[in-house]
Amino acid sequence: MTAAALAIEENRPTAAWGAVMSMALCVAMLIASEFMPVSLLTPMAHGLGATEGQTGQAISVSGLFAVAASLLITTAAGTLNRKWVLVATTALMLLSLVLVAAAPSFAVLMIGRALLGICIGGFWSLATAVIMRLVPQDDVPKALALMFGGQAIAGAFAAPIGSYLGGLFGWREVFWALTPIVAINLVWHVVALPSLPTAQKQDVRTMLGLLKRPYFRRGLIACMLSWGSAFTMFTYLRPFLEQVTGVGVTGLSILLLILGCAGFLGTWAADRLLTGNVAPFLKLPALVMGGATIGLLLLGFSVIAAALFMAIWGAMNTMFSVIWMTWMSRNADDAPEAAGSLMVAAIQTSILLGAVMGGMLLDSLSIQATFIGSIVLAAAAILLIGNGRKMLKPE
Questions:
Q1: Domain that holds residue 56
Q2: Residues in domain Major facilitator superfamily (MFS) profile (predicted)?
């Protein structure tokens, strides 16, 4: 082991839970910023003179730039201290929110969303690798569950509050309201994150090496299908609830609150269930969330049924992230940053394609066609995953 590597080992904290909490808040703000257009899709479209399908591309463009950033960040960052890379990505999120809130046109909105995509790609590429350095190995699933608790918080409060406040004050004010929270998070990062020097620069060869491993390649494709299914549906959930369930702004806010609060159950379950073999859990997201989408398609005209299926979807949504990032941490532990880059690229590509495909189906056919597309992708994921054993590193 080199002297630099030994220095990193000596400086590694036993368990920096304050830093984990800071990252959890950053996750909450990233999720809120990335998917806020879902709850504000209709008023944003009207305010910018665009269709709902076009405005849905505000999510896909952030995904496009997140893909590029995720593949480049670990190489571009070189041996820079990872603490300051995370601080820089959070500052970029703050700038993005200001641009979106003040956007005088659809083009400026898309520029702001592109900057957010760079932040998303940069943060998520490093997040799991950083968590693996902040806590002992046995505590990694717990720390991941805690970090993704930020996702549950964003899911529980960002969308319903965003929808409600957007109806009262306007969609721009919702984005302005996020900026002071992100500013606080920026300061918290500086204070709480320990120094995270890296002695080795990741490069493209490391990523290609991972892709040559059949189990990792299969898992990556399955992950993409699962995420693509989820966000083909989720991006266009508001038009479905308005057109099929027939709810107004208040009803929409309540249903989104139910979906989000159910996410806390998913985080709680992930913390307790992911202690052993992860293989049996890999197909659960596509199976459960795909099943919930079928339920909405068949019974979504009922508010009570819609609430039930959205709660099921929301609970699995937060567990989803912990399951797949735990899989990554255990099956690519020799190259966590490169694996993180590939995982983020795969997930963001899926979100991008899901938003594009869902928007095309919505504009050209119907909202029901969008949900059917989501179900088809979930079925493909389930078939590929099987019992999950072919996606585990050989012992």
A1: 7-391
A2: 1-395
